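Recap from last week: sequence in, structure out.
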Amino acid sequence: MNTELFIGVDKVKSDLGVSRAKAYEIIKDLNRQLKEVNPRAVIVSGKVNRIWYEEAVGYPNRMVN
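Predicted structure tokens:
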């Protein structure tokens, strides 16, 4: 079970098969969307909330607590 709170550029890059620059763009866009939905969300530059990322990418069989 993955307990990391944030996903970094290398994970996005490998999961989606995109360049490093594109992975950073995706992270930035996901963080913008998260902030719109939840203005109090904690945003870490260069990383994205793991749960938000998994929902956006559509990870199958993700357990919701």
